[in-house]
Amino acid sequence: MKGSKDAQRIARQLMKATVIDGRVDASVVRTVMVKLATDKPRGYLGVLNVYSHLVRLELKKSHAVIESAKPLGAVLEANVLADLKGKYGTQLTSEFKSNPELLGGMRVRVGSDVWDGSVRERLVRLREKFG
What we know:
Radius of gyration: 19 Å
Shape: elongated
Strand order of the largest sheet: 4-3-5-6
Number of helices: 5
Distance between the termini: 37 Å
Largest sheet: 4 strands, mixed
Number of domains: 2
């Protein structure tokens, strides 16, 4: 994360006020951004950059991207989403994608957590192991 230490410190403090009950409050984000842009305190551009980066990272923590080789049925999508919400909380949003390159199986990404149970990944691991 780029920015001066002061900008990082201020952005982290603003971020603490932004996350309410484990969720990013959009109205707080909007208020902070408008206030910084209108008042233009010293080093505000650095604070804006760091703060927007922190907000993006926090939002990614509550968004799941589920990829499968073929579209999943509604029942399977609901089951996968229920399992993920059990682990990450009910505020989790989701996005289901088809990716034929996976060959089979599924890849799930929530924030920086990735579970890759795809056939393609298994073949890659076998190739690395047996070369």
